[in-house]
Each structure stands twice: as structure tokens, then as C-alpha cells.
Design a protein that fits this description.
Chain A has 22 helices and no strands. Chain A is mainly α. Chain A has two domains: about 210 residues, no CATH class; about 210 residues, no CATH class. Chain B has ten helices and ten strands. Classes of the chains: A mainly alpha, B alpha/beta.
Chain lengths: ~525, ~260
């Protein structure tokens, strides 16, 4: 592969070397090893419950994955998306005399490391969950890494790189890929109408001969059936068609004309991808690649000076945003606020956890949205925040003011419907809203504490893990307070103590954040 | 030689460049001038092979999309983007492999010395300052010994020593017969370098000016005259010119303007 091979080798080697020099890497390795080891064992229980803990079960899972992955990839390649290039590739690789086909293969090869890991994980699942014989798994991994990779690589070359395909033809390929999904759905509907909705019917559908004859997706599924279940007429026919497809795409890709017309789309994708990465680094909401945020027109009446400017600037930005100050956490709070009373009615209560179910769900939501820090995270990174001539505490309050209001709204949304249906007393409901709002606010200041404590040592993920850790500490403190309060005087006292602990710890985080808010430099 | 003929480029329905054509002969330095949004970047990216376009771009007489044309063409973009996990030295190694050029250790050493990179060879791409990145980008372009080189705002981010060195290198390249095209707003920086200037605005080439034909005319004045920005200045549309200056002179007296 010449220059491209060198680039891949050196990038990987340096990345591994650099990672091994950081102590936090070993923490991540241990964390992910434990996590990845635990997943197959926990999934085994689920597989046993559904009765799919056999090689046929693995076939079902792989078939189901193929339904989405293969048409999804076809659509992405036809739209000249789905291959990740960086701005460095646009700078050095695209203008170079390296063959554009090799440039395409380079992007494909970069996913190889992840593919090897995924295949090893699939093999582990095959042994632990589905009890597949080792030799069949070895064959599957070889097929996946070699044959499937070559087929996909050539399809990618043909769809992404071909200069014979015009805009209209690309649109038709996208439609055809959706058509494949449509055919699979029609077959599924037929099985539902004839056999009803059951695990057996689902199995019959996924194993059906009709599915195996669907072009590309079905042929791949036939090979999977052949590898895990053995030979049958349809498996062999489908596998032969897959081999024909392989030969055709290899031949087509080798003969295809490609002078680099795709560079324009790839460069645009690289630019958008870098923007998404940067946004994630800044702690912003997850963006879709290539989707620019749209802003409307708005105005504010600026009042006050100094740190107030931060508040009004944020307000102006929020007013220009489509969803004002609300984001996905508000949506989830609303969803939880509806689901909790619905479950309460359906299940006839939540037993002994009933009084605390709302703050527990709120704590869970705070945890899963740890990475969503909105404008506050950007304020922490902006030099203007530090340059504004005002006290650190005033800046802290003004920079988080609107998000504190959002936390309060989220608290109301998650609490009020459940409080009404479960018959909570108004005082307990208010205390519950306060607990949820303070939990959300605590997350904001925990971010600042994490930035101060480990911002200079750990990367983005490390900082987020640390933030989760200290948030976990706060939640544990609140739980402990609630338990002691309940034992001493019942639900009301439990909520009071829980709120006091949450407020005190949040204030402590605020003070730590404010004391360090006069400079950008972190530990 | 760099030949651009009938170059047109549309982004959706917007025509960014309309039937642009110019030639920079061997051993000449061409300057592409134009206000923001004139279409310079589109022309540059088209020459570098990063855009689809209508028309023809030829490098040393070969279609710019051909491998042979790319082998003798170097490009320094406005914003350098390094491979984060590649060292400075590895960037050079990668480029020599990509372009298939034989380069001696001595040549690499000399280039690094010129741009004060000799002690930065083992630094990774993400450990460099913007100025250092620009120097590496320039070194990567020079190491292939190009016959045509395209520099987009090459002076931005460079320290004065590096700017001086780059100017000397550009003159060396020109003297060795290389074709140089520079896109820049920093007219002062290219005053002593240019041989031919192409002034662009609104997707068109408004004028082509050869240094020998212009006797003593200043490049800056020429630019303002051609793009009509001089009239705007006279009408006071340039905000910088109408800001009252209340600064005091060194002797403490108010500026008399």
C-alpha cells in the first residue's frame, strides 16, 4: 500500500505508544475489559429467557443486524458519506499522486482495528451465549474479516468512488437500498399476518427462504446460515450468489474509473466531522454530521453590566434557537414524567421505593446526560468569560443562570404528573422538585470541579468519568441522608435531609468552581 | 507552467467561479488577488484537485487530475492540518513516499534548518503551534521539488524569520524555473516577489497585470482601483478610516489629524 500503508502503520503505532504513556489508558483498558467481559454473561441470561442460547440464536442476531447494517452502508456510500476522513487527509493525501482508489481503501482499512475487536467480541458471545463450536466461529471470523471485508470494500469503491454514476443514478441506488429494507418489511408483515406475533414467528421470518433470496442482504444471510447451521439448498444457492456478487464487485472495482471526483464530498464530510468532534470536545449536544444548527431572529433588552452580559448573551442565543432553553434532557424529563404515573397505574404502585422513584429516575437521567453541559461548558472554554471585569461568583451565577432555570423546569416536568397520580403531599412534591432541580444544577458545577481537578491531566472522556464519579458521590450522600431521614421521621424528613445534603454539596461545588473561575488554566 | 482555462464552479445554484482563465509560465511568480468572497479559494481548491469543476487545469501541460501532474505539483493550504499522530519527520517521510521522490538526509536536514524545525522533528502534529504547522506544511511542499507550487496565504502565522526565509525560497524556486502561484491579502509581503498579478472579484478575473508593464504602479493601489474598493474608501465606507484617533503622540500632544 506504499504511502498509505506507511501512514496507517505510523498513525496506529504512535497512537498506541502515546496512549501507553498515559496512566489513564490502563484504567480505560481495565474498565472496558471488565465491561466487555461482563456483557456476554449478562446477555446470556437474556438469551436463555428468550430461548435463543444456541447457534441458531447467533444466526438470528446476525441476520437482524444485517437487515440494518447492509442497506445502511449502501445508502451511505451512494450518498458519498460514511467514510471518515480528517482535515489532515484533505491537506496532504488528497492533492498527492496517491491513487484515489487507494485513498478510498485507506479510509476502509482504518476501520479494520475496530472490526477485529468487534469480531473477537462476536466470537466471545458465540462461545459464551450461543454455544457455537469453535471451528464454526473461526470460519465466521475469517469470513467476516476477509470475504465480507473485500465485498464491502469493493462495493464502497464502486458506489463512493465511481465517476460514471451521476446524481440521479446515486439517488436510484439509495432508493434501491431502501427498497431492500421495504422487501424485508413486506416479508415480515406476511409472516406476522400468517403466523402472528411470537418469538417462533420472528425466528421463522428471519430464517425464511424468501429473506435469503433478497439481493445482497439475503445472500449474506445465506452464508451466515451455511456457516452456523450447515448446508441446505437455499443456503448453498444464496452463498453461491454471494460469491458471484463478490466476483462482480471485485471486477467492477478494479476496472472502475476514479480520478478523485469524490474528494469534494469527502473534504466536506471531513470538515463537518471535525466540527462535530470539536463540538463534543466543548461539551455541546450531539450534532449530526453535516447538519448545521439553524438560528432564527431574536433580540433582548440588555440590562446591567459586567457578568450580566453573559446572561443576556446566552438568553439571546437561546431565543434564536429552535427549542429555546430546552434540550434532550427536557424531553426525557417530560417522558419520565409521563411514564412514571403510567407505570404506577399499570403496576398498582412501586412498593417500598414509591416515595423515592422520581428523584431516583431524575438522578439516573442526570447521570446519563453527564456529557450534555450546554452553554456552560463553552463558557468555561471561552477566554471572554475570564476577561469580563466582574467577580468570579457573579460570572458563575450569570453563566449558569438560564441552565439553573432549565433544571427547575425539568424538575417540575418529571415530578408534577407523578406527584398528582401517586397522591404526594404538596410539600413533598415541592421538596421532590427541589431535589431534581438541585441534582441537575449539581451536574453543572461538578463539570467545573472536574475541569479544575483533572482538566489538565485527563482527556474529555476521563474528565467526564471523573464528573460522573463526583456526581455519584453526591447521589450516594443524598441516598444515605434519605435512608436516615426515613428511619428517623418518615418520607418528609427523608426529603428534607436529602435536599439539604444536595444543596450543601452543590454549594460546595459552586464555591470550588468560583474560587478557580478567575483563570482558564486548570490543574 | 500552470494553465487554467474556462474554469467554472457552482455550489448548488451559486456560481462561485465563472469562466476563469489565466496562465503562469515557468519561472514566474503569479499572485491571485481579490477581496473576500471573490472566488480565490474555489480556484485554488480546484487547482489542488479538491473540487469538481468545469473547464481545464493543466500542470506542465498535463491534466491536473492525472497522477503525473500531481507528482510535480505542491500545495500549501491556508490552514495547515497535521496528522495528530505523525511526527514532523514522519510527515516528510509520508510525503516522499506518496510522491515517490528520493530525498537525502542532508536535504531534509537543510530544509529543517532553514525553517528552524531541526529540534522539532520528533514532535507530533498535535504538539505544534500554528506557525510550526505552517512551516511543516511548507517543508512538505518543498521536499517534493515541485515544478508548480500553489501557496494559499503562506505568510499567515509565520514569524518574521520564517517569512524572510519563505520569500527567499520562493525566489529560489522561481529562479530554478518553478511556477509559483500565491493567493494572499498581504500585498506588502509579495511586493518584491510578483511577476504577474490576477485580480479577481465576484467569480471573474478583472485584470491581469505583468510587472514589467506597470513601471512604478503600486500593487495595493492597483488592487483598489480594479476592484472599485478605492471609491468606497473615498466615500468613507471603510470603517477603519473614519474611527477618530484620540491617541497621543510620544511627546504627549494630541495627534493633529
Amino acid at each position: 500500500m506504499g504511502a498509505v500503508g506507511y501512514l496507517y502503520r505510523r498513525t496506529m503505532t504512535n497512537w498506541i505508544k502515546k496512549s501507553l504513556h498515559k496512566p489513564v489508558t490502563y484504567f480505560y483498558i481495565v474498565f472496558f475489559l471488565i465491561y466487555l467481559s461482563a456483557v456476554p454473561f449478562s446477555l446470556r441470561v437474556m438469551a436463555e429467557q428468550f430461548g435463543i442460547n444456541s447457534p441458531d440464536g447467533m444466526v438470528l442476531v446476525l441476520t437482524f443486524l444485517a437487515f440494518w447494517v447492509i442497506p445502511g452502508n449502501l445508502v451511505a456510500y451512494a450518498k458519498r458519506k460514511g467514510l471518515v476522513y480528517r482535515n489532515s487527509d484533505v491537506h496532504f493525501l488528497f492533492p498527492s499522486p496517491v491513487s484515489p482508489k487507494r485513498v478510498l481503501l485507506y479510509a476502509h482499512i482504518r476501520t479494520l482495528f475496530m472490526q477485529v475487536l468487534l469480531n473477537l467480541f462476536a466470537a466471545a458471545c458465540g462461545i459464551i451465549i450461543f454455544r457455537v463450536p469453535t471451528w464454526r466461529l473461526v470460519l465466521y471470523v475469517l469470513f467476516s474479516l476477509v470475504v465480507e471485508n473485500v465485498t464491502e470494500g469493493c462495493i464502497m469503491l464502486l458506489l463512493y468512488g465511481s465517476e460514471r454514476l451521476g446524481e440521479n443514478q446515486r439517488k436510484w441506488i439509495v432508493r434501491a437500498a431502501y427498497g431492500l429494507i421495504g422487501v424485508l418489511v413486506i416479508i415480515g408483515v406476511y409472516y406476522y399476518l400468517t403466523q402472528g406475533l411470537s418469538t417462533a414467528a420472528l425466528g421463522n421470518f428471519l430464517n425464511s427462504d424468501a429473506v435469503k433470496m433478497v439481493p445482497i442482504v439475503g445472500w449474506y444471510i445465506s452464508v451466515i446460515h451455511l456457516l452456523f447451521g450447515g448446508a441446505s439448498t437455499m443456503n448453498i444457492v444464496g452463498a453461491l450468489l454471494y460469491i458471484c456478487l463478490l466476483a462482480a464487485v471485485v471486477f467492477g472495482a478494479a476496472r472502475m474509473k476514479c480520478t478523485g471526483a469524490f474528494y469534494e464530498d469527502a473534504a466536506k464530510f471531513a470538515e463537518d466531522y471535525e466540527e462535530v468532534l470539536e463540538n463534543q470536545r466543548q461539551g455541546g449536544a450531539r450534532m449530526r454530521i453535516g447538519k448545521k444548527k439553524k438560528f432564527g431572529r431574536a433580540s433582548v433588552n440588555w440590562k446591567g453590566t459586567g457578568a450580566r452580559a453573559l446572561f443576556y448573551r446566552q438568553l439571546l442565543e437561546y431565543k434564536k434557537s429552535k427549542f429555546f432553553i430546552f434540550d434532550v434532557s427536557t424531553l426525557f424529563s417530560l417522558g419520565a414524567g409521563i411514564v412514571i404515573p403510567w407505570l404506577y397505574v399499570r403496576e398498582g404502585g412501586f412498593g417500598y421505593v414509591e416515595p423515592y422513584i422520581i428523584p431516583a429516575v431524575s438522578a439516573y437521567l442526570t447521570f446519563i446526560f453527564t456529557t450534555l453541559n450546554g452553554k456552560w461548558a463553552k463558557e468555561l472554554k471561552s477566554p471572554y468569560t475570564y476577561l469580563i471585569p466582574d467577580s468570579a461568583f457573579a460570572k458563575l451565577l450569570n453563566a449558569t443562570g438560564i441552565q439553573l432555570i432549565q433544571c427547575l423546569i425539568n424538575g417540575v416536568l418529571i415530578t408534577v404528573p407523578g406527584a398528582i397520580v401517586m397522591g404526594m403531599s404538596p410539600v413533598t412534591a415541592v421538596l421532590c422538585v427541589a431535589a431534581c432541580a438541585v441534582l441537575g444544577s449539581n451536574k453543572l458545577y461538578a463539570l467545573a470541579v472536574a475541569e479544575i481537578a483533572v482538566g489538565g491531566i485527563l482527556g474529555t472522556v476521563g474528565k467526564q468519568l471523573f464528573q460522573m464519579f463526583i456526581q455519584g458521590f453526591v447521589i450516594m450522600g443524598a441516598v444515605l441522608g434519605a435512608v436516615l431521614g426515613f428511619m428517623a421521621g418518615g418520607v418528609m424528613l427523608a426529603y428534607c435531609i436529602m435536599d439539604v445534603i444536595l444543596i450543601l454539596l452543590t454549594l460546595a461545588f459552586m464555591v470550588i468552581a468560583a474560587l478557580n473561575f478567575y483563570k482558564m488554566e486548570t490543574a | 507552467m500552470l494553465e487554467v482555462a474556462n474554469l467554472s464552479k457552482k455550489y448548488g445554484k451559486t456560481l462561485a467561479v465563472d469562466d476563469v482563465g489565466f496562465t503562469v509560465p515557468d519561472g514566474r511568480v503569479g499572485i491571485l488577488l481579490g477581496p473576500n468572497g471573490a472566488g480565490k479559494s474555489t480556484v485554488i481548491k480546484s487547482i489542488a484537485g479538491l473540487l469538481r469543476y468545469k473547464g481545464s487545469i493543466r500542470i506542465q501541460g498535463i491534466d491536473s487530475r492525472e497522477t503525473e501532474a500531481k507528482k510535480c505539483f505542491a500545495y500549501v493550504p491556508e490552514i495547515p492540518n497535521m496528522y495528530e499522530a505523525l511526527t514532523v519527520r514522519e510527515h516528510i517521510e509520508f510525503i516522499t513516499r506518496a510522491y515517490g521522490v528520493e530525498v537525502s538526509e542532508e536535504e531534509i536536514g537543510q530544509l529543517f534548518e532553514k525553517f528552524e524545525l531541526d529540534d522539532k522533528q520528533d514532535k507530533l502534529g498535535n504538539e505544534l503551534s500554528k506557525g510550526m504547522m505552517q512551516k511543516v506544511s511548507i517543508c512538505c511542499a518543498l521536499i517534493i521539488k515541485p515544478r508548480v507550487i500553489l501557496l494559499d496565504e503562506p505568510m499567515v502565522g509565520l514569524d518574521p524569520a520564517a517569512i524572510k526565509e519563505l520569500k527567499a525560497v520562493i525566489l529560489e524556486l522561481r529562479d530554478s524555473g518553478c511556477t509559483v502561484l500565491i493567493s494572499t491579502h498581504m500585498l506588502e509581503m509579495v511586493k518584491e516577489l510578483w511577476d504577474v498579478t490576477f485580480v479577481m472579484d465576484k467569480g471573474h478575473i478583472l485584470g491581469t497585470y505583468v510587472k514589467e508593464d506597470l513601471a512604478n504602479e503600486d500593487l495595493e493601489e492597483l488592487f483598489f482601483k480594479v476592484t472599485g474598493q478605492a471609491e468606497k474608501n473615498e466615500r468613507g465606507e471603510h470603517s477603519q478610516e473614519i474611527i477618530p484617533d484620540h491617541s497621543e503622540n510620544a511627546d504627549g500632544k494630541e495627534d493633529g489629524r
